C-alpha cells in the first residue's frame, strides 16, 4: 500500500473520479497498484492551467464537489488504482501533468476520512471503511429551459441576486452555444431553472445570455497560463440574468 499526497480540492476530485490520469515517479508494480490519497491544505499555484481552475469552480458551483472550505485536510480521504499504461483519453487535469502519466481506475471516497497518524502498510480498502463512487450530475437542457444544478449556497445567493456567473468550460459550451467554436452564437433560452437537491426555482430569462471576458484596471484582458505551451488564455464566464420568478 502506498500513500500519495494531493492538495485540496484536487485530492477530492481525483477520488470522485473526475481525472483519468496521474503522474507517478515510479511505475505501478504488477501492472496495477492501489494508492491511498492523503488530502493536504488547498494550494492554488499561479501556474495552474486556467481550464482546470474553471472546471473545479463549476463543479463546486453545480454541487458536484464540496466547497473548498468544507473539504477535509491532513486526512486519508480515498483511494484509486493506477495501471502501467497511459490513459485512453486525456482530460484537462491529465494534460497538465508532467510525464510519465498512468491510467487511473476505480477511484473511491471513504465515507469517513481517517487521520494520517493511522497509516498502515497492510490497509485493506475493501474491509476497513465503506467507500463509494460519486459521479457528477448533469441536468438536461432544452431549447427553451436551461437547468443549472447548483450547491445550496449558490441556490439562494443567485436567486436573491438575480444573476449567476458560470465559467465557460467545454462542458458549458456544449450546452449554451449552438456552435461550440463560435462564442457569438448563443442559444436563446426562455427560462433558467436553479436546481438544488429536490428544490427548484424557475425564472424568466431577463435578457440574452452574456459572455464576460475578464479585464484588468487598464481595460486589458486578464490572461492566465494554459496547458498548451506558448499560449495564454483569458478567463471567460457566462452571465445569466434572471427575470420574474415562475411559480
List keywords for this structure.
247 residues, alpha+beta, 2 domains, six-stranded mixed beta sheet, 5 helices
Question: What this model shows, in words?
Answer:
With 247 residues, this protein is of the alpha+beta class. The chain folds into two domains: 2-132, no CATH class; 145-246, no CATH class. It is built from five helices and 14 strands. The strands form three sheets. Strands 1, 2, 3, 4, 5 and 6 form a six-stranded mixed β-sheet that branches. Strands 7, 8, 9, 10, 11 and 14 form a six-stranded mixed β-sheet that branches. A hairpin with a 2-residue loop joins strand 9 (191-196) and strand 10. It is globular. The model is unreliable at 127-140 (pLDDT under 50).
Low-confidence stretches: 127-140
What's the order of the H and E elements?
EHEEHEHEEEHEHEEEEEE
Task: Tally the beta strands.
Answer: 14
Shape: globular
Main sheet summary = 6 strands, mixed
Rg from alpha-carbon coordinates: 20 Å
Helix content: 10-25%
Distance between the termini: 54 Å
Number of domains: 2
Would you summarize the structure shown here?
The protein has five helices and 14 strands. It is an alpha+beta fold and about 250 residues long.
Summarize the helices and strands and which ones pair or pack.
Elements: E1 2-7, H1 10-16, E2 21-23, E3 32-40, H2 50-61, E4 75-83, H3 92-95, E5 101-115, E6 131-132, E7 145-149, H4 152-161, E8 163-167, H5 170-176, E9 191-196, E10 199-205, E11 210-213, E12 223-225, E13 232-234, E14 236-246
Parallel strand pairs: 1-3, 7-9
Antiparallel strand pairs: 2-5, 3-4, 4-5, 5-6, 8-14, 9-10, 10-14, 11-14, 12-13
Amino acid at each position: 500500500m502506498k500513500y500519495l499526497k494531493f492538495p485540496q480540492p484536487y485530492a477530492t476530485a481525483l477520488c470522485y473520479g473526475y481525472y483519468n490520469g496521474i503522474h507517478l515517479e515510479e511505475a505501478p508494480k504488477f501492472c496495477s497498484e492501489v494508492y491511498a490519497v492523503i488530502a493536504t491544505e488547498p494550494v492554488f499555484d499561479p501556474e495552474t492551467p486556467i481550464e482546470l481552475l474553471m472546471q473545479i469552480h463549476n463543479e463546486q458551483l453545480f454541487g458536484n464537489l464540496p466547497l473548498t472550505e468544507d473539504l477535509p485536510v491532513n486526512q486519508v480521504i480515498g483511494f484509486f488504482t493506477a495501471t502501467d499504461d497511459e490513459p485512453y483519453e486525456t482530460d484537462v487535469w491529465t494534460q497538465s501533468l508532467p510525464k510519465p502519466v498512468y491510467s487511473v481506475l476505480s477511484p473511491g471516497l471513504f465515507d469517513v476520512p481517517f487521520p494520517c497518524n493511522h497509516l498502515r502498510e497492510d490497509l485493506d480498502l475493501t474491509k476497513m471503511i465503506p467507500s463509494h463512487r460519486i459521479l457528477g450530475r448533469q441536468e438536461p437542457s432544452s431549447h427553451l429551459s436551461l437547468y443549472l444544478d447548483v450547491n445550496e449556497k449558490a441556490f439562494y445567493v443567485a436567486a436573491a441576486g438575480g444573476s449567476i456567473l458560470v465559467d465557460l468550460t467545454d462542458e458549458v459550451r456544449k450546452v449554451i452555444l449552438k456552435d461550440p467554436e463560435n462564442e457569438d452564437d448563443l442559444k436563446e433560452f426562455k427560462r433558467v431553472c436553479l436546481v438544488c437537491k429536490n428544490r427548484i426555482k424557475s425564472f424568466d430569462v431577463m435578457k440574452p445570455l452574456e459572455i464576460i471576458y475578464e479585464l484588468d484596471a487598464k481595460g486589458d484582458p486578464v490572461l492566465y497560463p494554459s496547458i498548451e505551451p506558448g499560449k495564454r488564455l483569458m478567463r471567460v464566464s457566462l452571465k445569466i440574468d434572471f427575470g420574474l420568478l415562475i411559480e
